[in-house]
Design a protein that fits this description.
Helix content is about 35%, strand content about 10%. Helix 7 packs antiparallel against helix 8.
């Protein structure tokens, strides 16, 4: 079995990432406008998508919550089934679509723009001239050749580009908010991420530090977690000392609990039950049905 397709996909993904980075970096004004809209949000940031892009929308909301932003992702198909009622003017809707032509998102944009007080609509797409991008207040877009997709159709390079944008937006918003490791620990105390954030905070890194490429990372202070909590190991079994018997208390054994003979509990008593006790009906099925007693 050859691994040719696997290696070709890796090289294609690397080229797609480089291509997307060049395009996104070439329009810093779009990045500024997009990040500012997220930072100014006075309500809830609502990423939304359908299909493969839904994974990026879900992760964007989850990562934004970890740095203290109010965010919740909504599947694009759910807006027309009641979720439009949750939208407020101060919210920001982040629509993610590689084609920029998803029918559910275009219908959502039309519904939102028709509101008396519409929320802010942002777009992350693979086509800056798509209908969704043109309907948005701000957009982040790129354009990748179909050769970076699996079978030239299934999202591969475009999915990586969406992940790039998600990561960069979370980093940018964390910087704008001044998010610290204490904030991250408060919002995400569980799992390996929470443990790493708490450890870094205890080690003296009280805030997220953006280190330029090529510069050394800050040294983390070594902290002994048991410095102020002395640990006393329990005595071995042969050091067990019986306690003094109190007046009126039952006699105590002079042997350690591990050497005392355990008396087996008495066998449970079986309760005698008359199956014909209730209303002449037998509780024992005959042929699958209860039959009346006495015919």
């Amino acid at each position: 079995m050859s691994s040719g397709a696997f290696l070709r996909s890796l090289r294609s993904s690397e080229a797609a990432v480089a291509h997307a980075v060049r395009q996104l970096s070439a329009r810093p004004e779009r990045v500024t406008a997009f990040a500012a809209a997220l930072h100014r949000c006075g309500g809830t940031i609502l990423p939304t998508a359908i299909g493969k892009s839904a994974a990026a929308a879900s992760r964007l909301a989850a990562s934004l919550r970890s740095v203290g932003a109010r965010a919740h992702w909504v599947h694009a198909a759910e807006w027309a089934h009641g979720d439009l009622g949750a939208v407020r003017e101060e919210d920001v809707i982040v629509c993610i679509s590689n084609s920029g032509r998803s029918a559910e998102l275009l219908a959502l944009a039309a519904e939102l723009r028709a509101l008396p007080r519409p929320p802010t609509i942002l777009a992350i797409t693979g086509d800056e001239r798509s209908p969704l991008a043109l309907l948005a207040s701000a957009q982040l877009s790129w354009s990748l050749p179909t050769e970076h997709e699996i079978l030239r159709v299934l999202p591969a390079g475009s999915a990586l580009a969406q992940d790039l944008v998600v990561n960069a937006l979370v980093a940018q918003l964390a910087e704008l908010r001044g998010s610290t490791l204490a904030d991250l620990t408060a919002c995400h105390p569980g799992g390996a991420i929470g443990a790493a954030a708490a450890s870094a905070a205890l080690g003296g890194l009280s805030e997220i530090t953006w280190v330029p490429q090529g510069q050394p990372l800050p040294q983390r202070q070594q902290v002994d977690p048991f410095e102020k909590v002395p640990y006393e190991s329990p005595p071995p079994p042969d050091m067990w000392v019986p306690q003094m018997q109190q007046p009126g208390q039952a006699p105590m054994s002079s042997q350690p609990p591990s050497q005392q003979q355990q008396q087996p509990p008495p066998p449970p008593q079986r309760q005698q039950v008359d199956p014909f006790e209730r209303g002449g009906q037998s509780s024992l099925p005959m042929g699958g049905f209860p039959w009346p007693r006495g015919g």
